[in-house]
Amino acid sequence: MALDPHMQALLDQFAGAFDLDFQQLDATSYRRFADQGVATGEPLNVAEVRELRVADDLPARLYRPSAEAGLPLLVFFHGGGFVAGTLDTHDDLCRRLALGSGAVVVSVGYRLAPEAVFPTAAHDCGQAVAELVVRAAELDVDASRLALAGDSAGGNLAIASARLLRQRGGPLPRALCLFYPVTDQTCGSASYREFAKGYFLEAAMMHWFWHQYLGQWPAPLDVLASPLHAADLGTLPATLLMSAECDPLRDEGEAFAERARAAGAEVELVRAEGMLHGFASFAPFVPRAQAYLDDASAWLRCALGASA
């Protein structure tokens, strides 16, 4: 399928913006560029937005879609290649997920590479989930209806958190919602070659991200960083994985979904036709991206038993 015309317009707008020298680039300079985010206009209204501190003083932000008591809890981890991304860059997406899913969303600002290399972010995220569940009464959420979500690197961290929580004896989420997740540090799939350059996320950029996160790249394979290669995927909770058709990460995300399903996990795989990596954050400008986000929200609402 051809690239969605609204996506093509965004890609044209960004033309040249990502022409970066990844041999010389440092994380501070990249963040200065990447963390500007995308202007989305006036923020969508939710019933409450609250700043929190979790897991040894990490920043977090709570979004309550309505005044209803005891809503489900959706913990969200932002993308940004493990190097960039903030609570602000994903503010609009978290508001949309809260309103669409009917769950209280808590977005977690985990520590970033290269200052905090692997596995720091994964452990930050797992610890944050465990603490938020303990604080359920304070936050007025129903922690028995828990889901984890994330986009790109955040999807990787949602998977890592679910696996770490199971290894530590809980709490166990009911559901995972993954948007174009990073699942394989080897970067060797066909979609890496097909969409290596010119489709927003580029292969050279991913190689640089992995180097920052792992401290070197290539690096010894670690299944906490590369869950595609993990042997325990059958223990994952019910999972929705949305890949983007025109994305270097497409094949590794879809392979992860297929392997988890083959291992016994309940997995729904959706390929977002005509979409680029990052489409969930482009919902304000791309109607088809909003439609996919609506589908993900409806899936979460059903998985968590949220009221309509």
Shape call = globular
Strand composition percent: 15-25%
CATH superfamily: Alpha/Beta hydrolase fold, catalytic domain
User: What kind of sheet is the major sheet?
Assistant: 8 strands, mixed
CATH-defined architecture: 3-Layer(aba) Sandwich
Q: Could you give the count of β-strands?
A: 8
CATH topology, by name, is Rossmann fold
Which labels suit this protein?
Rossmann fold, 308 residues, alpha/beta, 10 helices, 8-stranded mixed β-sheet, globular
Report what the structure shows:
The protein has 308 residues and is α/β, with parallel strands linked by helices. It has one domain (5-304): Rossmann fold (3-Layer(aba) Sandwich), CATH 3.40.50.1820. Helices cover 36% and strands 20% of the residues. It is built from ten helices and eight strands. It has helices at residues 5-13, 27-34, 91-101, 120-134, 136-139, 153-167, 190-194, 203-214, 250-262, 287-304, and strands at 48-54, 58-64, 71-77, 104-108, 141-151, 175-179, 238-246, 267-276. An eight-stranded mixed sheet has the order 1-2-4-3-5-6-7-8, sandwiched between helices. Strand 7, helix 9 (250-262) and strand 8 form a beta-alpha-beta unit. Helix 3 (91-101) packs across helix 10 and helix 4 (120-134) crosses helix 6. The model has no long low-confidence stretch (mean pLDDT 95).
